[in-house]
Specification:
The protein has three helices and seven strands; from the N terminus they run αββαβαββββ. With 153 residues, the chain is an alpha+beta fold. A hairpin with a 2-residue loop joins strand 1 and strand 2. The longest helix is centred in the N-terminal third of the chain and has 14 residues. The relative contact order is 0.22.
Length: 153
């Protein structure tokens, strides 16, 4: 029974028959880049892996301008909550790197006393909402689940 279904699926792909569009990612071309704002929540590692499946990586927020532009886009789309980005200090506590392995070269706006998780909270989030937390960064356990943003080159 599985063989006919697999064969039919391959035939659809080869012939260019459209796949169910409800299950395909929706990329937004904003802020001088192309971004996917996830509809699901994953751990930081699973989110990074999912982005790689799409030929991208967790968003690398390179400066305050990109931070604010992503926040502005999130407001226009009525997104809210915490969103994973590529920033982390997994390798060395307190040394924050991005998706490309380079250091974060600017000072993000941290929420309250963050980063505050020490050696147990090594993955970074941005808060996308219209509150006093808007655009601020958090650190959290990499195994917590949150929405995520992918970025493709």
């Amino acid at each position: 029974m599985r063989l006919p279904i697999i064969f039919l699926s391959i035939q659809m792909l080869v012939r260019g028959i459209p796949v169910n569009q409800e299950n395909t990612p929706h990329w937004s071309d904003v802020c001088g880049g192309s971004y996917l704002f996830s509809e699901d929540a994953k751990t930081w590692f699973d989110a990074a892996g999912n982005c790689e499946l799409y030929g991208s990586h967790l968003v690398q927020i390179d400066d305050i301008s990109e931070n604010n532009c992503l926040l502005e886009h999130a407001h226009s789309q009525e997104f809210a909550g915490y969103w994973w980005h590529s920033g982390n200090d997994i390798e060395i506590e307190g040394v924050y790197r991005q998706a490309d392995g380079e250091y974060i070269q600017w000072q993000p706006i941290w929420w309250d006393n963050n980063p505050s998780g020490g050696k147990v909270e090594n993955c970074l989030l941005i808060r996308l909402e219209s509150s006093e937390y808007a655009g601020k960064w958090w650190d959290d356990h990499c195994t917590s689940t949150h929405h995520y943003i992918c970025e493709r080159a």
